[in-house]
Amino acid sequence: MKTKVAAALLAGAALILSPAVCLAESGGAGNYTQEDLVWEDQFDGDALDTANWNYEPHEPGWVNNESQRYVGEEENRSAAPEEKNVIVKDGFLILQARKYVDESGKVSYTSGRINTQHKQDFLYGRFEARLKVPYGNAFLPAFWMMPTEESLYGQWPKCGEIDIMEVLGNQTDTSYATIHYGEPHRESQGSKKLDADNFSDDFHVFACEWDPGEFRF
User: Fold this and answer.
1) Suppose 8 and one of 55, 117, 161, 215 were both cysteines; which one would form an S-S bond, judging by CB atoms 3.0 to 4.6 Å apart?
2) Could you give the CA distance from residue 171 to residue 200 in angstroms, rounded to a whole number?
């Protein structure tokens, strides 16, 4: 018998969340209501609420051959306001990518990556966030879920991954939703393409409804 695995929310690269990340359980089949709400973050303060969220620092190239370094909590807290990568202001959570050029001309990048692991973990329900993504080559903002205990089934992709939103910075009219699983790696993917505008022009609500045996994006 397989053990049920709770999932933690993650957000990374560069994007803006507002007003909340919301989770609801028990509605089922698209019938979720406000009464089903079990957790949300409205980003009302002036700093990331570390009772709910973790900073996830990583060196460049740690995953997907990414160029940026993801900063940790202390580095972000001590940075000058104009150099912070994780910003909470006026009801918005901003994950800001930054470019640096040193005296020798070497270019480097920093960004923010956060998750709710061991703080807000859920099995099944509706997971949503209101997001605005950046426009530009090499951006890949994402809102996704990973198992709370990734080692339970084994290293990725065995552990699974639920991507609620991924938007390429040079193709901001299309959002991808994907589930990753298995060994060797398999995936099932769908997409949503806007007819008239772009996901970088305004905020949109991205959601996944996860029930036993079914995902709805």
Assistant:
1) 117
2) 10
d(CA 208, CA 202): 20
Question: Catalytic: 161?
Answer: yes
Helical ranges in 5-78 per DSSP H: 73-78
Tens digits of per-residue pLDDT, 142-199? 999 999 988 888 889 999 999 999 999 999 999 999 999 999 999 999 999 999 999 9
- Does the active-site annotation cover 25? no
Average predicted confidence (pLDDT) for the chain: 88
7-216 carries CATH number 2.60.120.200: yes
pTM (two decimals): 0.90
State how far the Cα of 41 lies from the Cα of 20, in Å rounded to an integer. 5
The residue behind tokens 């994006």 is 217
Candidate list 83, 166, 187, 214, residue with the active-site label: 166
Dump strand ranges (E) for 14-53: 15-24, 37-41
142-147 and 7-13 as β-strands: parallel, antiparallel, unpaired? antiparallel
Q: How far is residue 6's CA from residue 208's CA, in Å, rounded to a whole number?
A: 15
Residue 196 is given by DSSP the state: S
